[in-house]
Amino acid sequence: PATRVSGLRPGTTGHDLTLKVISCKKVRRAGGPGGLSEAIVGDESGVIVMTCRGYQVDLVQPGNTICVKD
What we know:
Blueprint: E1 16-28, E2 36-43, E3 46-53, H1 56-59, E4 65-69
Antiparallel strand pairs: 1-2, 1-4, 2-3
């Protein structure tokens, strides 16, 4: 079953989330493609800050809906 942001707890795994990207900003340009960014993402139950690396930086843009599986 899908997890909601409100159900996330530190140190847990096995989550399947569908999240809307609210905002995103580059934190630094790393040596590889994409660099590093932080995004505010969420669902109806809340929002979280997500760190994005490499190819994720290009995919996680404001207005996009993303699926996160862990």
